[in-house]
Amino acid sequence: MTAPTDGRPGFLGVARSHVAKLSRPALLLLLVIVVLAGLIIVYGTAKASQATVNGFVAGTYIGLGAIGLTLILSVLKLVNFAYGDLLVAGAYLTIMFSWMGAPLPLAMVLAVLGTAVISLATEKFVWRPLRKSGASTLQSLLSAIGLGFVIRFTIQFFGGSQSRTLGADVTSTIILGPIRVGTLQALSLLFGVAAVMVFGLALRFTKMGKAIRAFSDNQTLAEVSGINASKTIDVTWIVSGLIAGTAGVLYAAAIGSFNPNFGVALLLSLFAAAILGGIGNAYGALAGGIVMGLSQEWSTLLFSARWKPAIGLALLVAMLLTMPNGIFGRSQRQS
């Protein structure tokens, strides 16, 4: 298409100028819509829609886990490689409480609370002593890896290494036209969205949520303003544990079968989602999780399902090259 002879820009020029004015979240949404439209054209409405629904289900627990991960990263500047194993703890605690006689919904709630207790215990017995001793970043990183091994092998010792289920009905499905969704998957999606809304509103409007955000922005200024640093850190670990337990339970319910190693496999996706969304931004972590879930499930239309982690890693590299600060990240100002 040629440009008009009167000097006005052509259609492509106008389109490019409008696209250039879009924000990064809007650009990402536009890209998702374009990709989905292309998949519908190539593979048909049924396959593309099914993969999209599966992507939203996966994106819910990935995004939820990424929120807890980025919360620790932004407040304590700690890369917690043991976080994936906290999700495993949530799933296996559900099995334990069910074995003790609790109904499955109550067992899930108790498992989430139990994961928060484990998370707080790691702060009391691992991270706080390390901070007081002046541990370096490398020492903290190695401690996180070691802590992950401890949690994982403890679960494996008591729960076994074989695949487990929550004991719920995984055969029941909901049929919506050409789309088939497992009932547990649908419930996981709904509860995941509700959990994200609750945690998001709590961080934004409650007094402790504001304290956590202030502590994340500037720890020194927050302490000078009267914010109790020790209490804020403890609450951060509790909230992070609640999120991890919820994400682990949702993963177990959505996938159906799991083993003690699923936290390691899921950890890359959690980090990728946190980085994609912009480090320190809870809403960005959720958006990154949705992008990761959609990209991995859409990739199954092109490749074998075993390549999903590789697709997530490739997406992470591509996004870092194009958007180094993430979707909602802010550019760092240089002094």
Characterise the protein shown here.
The protein has 335 residues and is mainly alpha-helical. The protein has a single domain, classed as ABC transporter involved in vitamin B12 uptake, BtuC, CATH 1.10.3470. It has 13 helices and two strands. A hairpin with a 2-residue loop joins β1 and β2. The C terminus is likely disordered.
Rg over alpha carbons: 22 Å
**Tally of DSSP β-strands:** 2
- Output the structural class: mainly alpha
Separate helix tally: 13
Task: Provide the β-strand percentage band.
Answer: under 5%
| Contiguous uncertain segments of 5+ residues | 331-335
N- and C-termini, Cα separation: 46 Å
> How many structurally independent domains?
1
- Shape estimate: globular
Instruction: Record the strand order, biggest sheet.
Output: 1-2
Per the CATH scheme, the topology name is ABC transporter involved in vitamin B12 uptake, BtuC
Helix content: over 70%
Largest pleated sheet: 2 strands, antiparallel
Mean pLDDT reading: 83
Tags for this model:
single chain; mainly alpha; ABC transporter involved in vitamin B12 uptake, BtuC; two-stranded antiparallel sheet; 13 helices; 2% strand
Give the topology.
Layout: H1 11-20, H2 24-43, H3 45-76, H4 83-99, H5 104-132, H6 137-159, E1 173-176, E2 179-182, H7 183-205, H8 207-217, H9 219-224, H10 229-255, H11 262-277, H12 282-299, H13 308-322
Helix pairs in contact: 2-3, 3-7, 3-8, 3-10, 3-11, 3-12, 4-5, 4-6, 4-10, 4-11, 5-10, 7-8, 7-10, 8-10, 11-12, 11-13, 12-13
